[in-house]
Task: structure prediction
Amino acid sequence: QVQLVESGGGLVQAGGSLRLSCTASGRTLSGYTMGWFRQAPGKEREFVAAITRSGSGTYYADSLKGRFTASRDNAENTVYLQMNSLKPEDAAVYFCAARETYYSDTYYVRDNEYINWGQGTQVTVSS
Result:
């Protein structure tokens, strides 16, 4: 079973940037499709980004394309979410999620398709 720990959240001014990290232990991440989700107070958890096992494929929520970038370093067992031009509406708890997959180009956008989850990291954006 893989364990996931997110880090890198914090307080940033609108227009600023943050890079979130999700580090895995227990298993190597190279066999997992990874996803990022977020949940703001009073709202449902929503898809942010997904990245295939090798990192060759990345997919984003339409509203976030161009501002967020997912990447991974399988040698470091870590995935990243670079967030630029942050807006107050980006404030949320951000979660990484994993699902072991056989095919290298598989990705998932629904939270119920992921098996393993981190505890989340808070992102606050001041206006």
In short: The mean pLDDT is 96.
